[in-house]
């Protein structure tokens, strides 16, 4: 296996491409989301999205904040060749809701808020609450893992360049024109 | 960060290697041998060690208390003493004035000033209490995964080092490449293709 620091830096583009692809999937390929979680009700962009453009030796980054923020600037940035580097998501499955951010370069989850769990009043409660929390974290992590697996499988296929990339390009252009 | 907080950050790891049997004894020994030690009243600036999830301020691993359901749950504690720069500056100024008065000289050399600064910092470090920060972790022994409840680079680096020292096991950080390589069940041919991937642009 490659050295950890080398592989972290060399392949962080995979995380950026994944988050950009995920935005496309959330808007245009909802069936792929349900493949990742059959109980999924919705997966939407939350209150934060960050994009970076490293093309032509320039470094340009934009951050869009706010629950109902318009994504026009994000679209414009995508058109210039930027990729999504961080994404806040609202995930609803069954009757529950999760909120979290994913950082592209590390796939770290941060600000993860699960559905509410019962209060902890004694030792037995503590163990029960822990097991419940682990189950809820696992649900969010499994969603991300399953989505990333779909992305990687696609990314490794020859049709990625022939089909997926043109579809994503078309989506970026159509967002701008809408 | 507590794994029961209302908002958490998670770093995922794969655990490489096998624990020496009997497993519970190996775990207990690793945890107690590298448990966090108090540094208050000592001339030590920072320390790191394991502590209990249930009582992070009084590490206790008796009775397999670190086993909860199918998981091992304990915490990494990082204790650090931070002296505000102004406090050091004030005490150094007082000490320099004292030495000038005592020696009857007008100036101190750079070396003398440095010695005073070091001496003052060491004396202050002994006097101030350390601030403890506990970061929980949950380890699924059977499935060889571990979640660490912090994304802080420094805390993750300490975790990786201490884990190896304590249990003789390596933590493999799961980021985009390692997740694909180790956690998605790819075939060898797919892994070869993965290693050859290059960035693409969606707009060219």
Quick gist of this model?
By secondary structure, chain A is of the alpha+beta class.
Topology (elements, then pairings):
The complex is a heterodimer of chains A (about 180) and B (about 200).
Chain A: H1 4-10, H2 12-28, H3 30-36, E1 40-53, E2 60-65, H4 72-79, E3 83-93, E4 96-103, E5 109-113, H5 123-156, H6 159-177
Antiparallel strand pairs in A: 1-2, 1-3, 3-4, 4-5
Helix pairs in contact in A: 2-3, 2-5, 3-5, 4-6
Chain B: E1 8-16, H1 23-33, E2 46-52, E3 67-68, E4 71-80, H2 85-103, H3 110-127, E5 131-140, E6 145-148, H4 153-167, E7 170-173, H5 176-182, H6 188-195
Helix pairs in contact in B: 2-3
Descriptive report:
The complex is a heterodimer of chains A (178) and B (204). With 178 residues, chain A is of the alpha+beta class. Chain A is 52% helix and 25% strand. Chain A is built from 6 helices and 5 strands. Chain A has a 5-stranded antiparallel β-sheet with strand order 2-1-3-4-5. In chain A, a hairpin with a 6-residue loop joins strand 1 and strand 2. The longest helix of chain A is centred in the C-terminal third of the chain and has 34 residues. Chain A is globular. Chain B folds into 2 domains: 138 residues, no CATH class; 43 residues, no CATH class. Helix content of chain B is 38%, strand content 23%. In chain B, strands 1, 2, 3, 4, 5, 6 and 7 form a 7-stranded antiparallel β-sheet that branches. In chain B, a hairpin with a 4-residue loop joins strand 5 and strand 6. Chain B is extended, with a radius of gyration of 24 Å. Strand 5 of chain A pairs antiparallel with strand 1 of chain B, so a sheet runs across the interface.
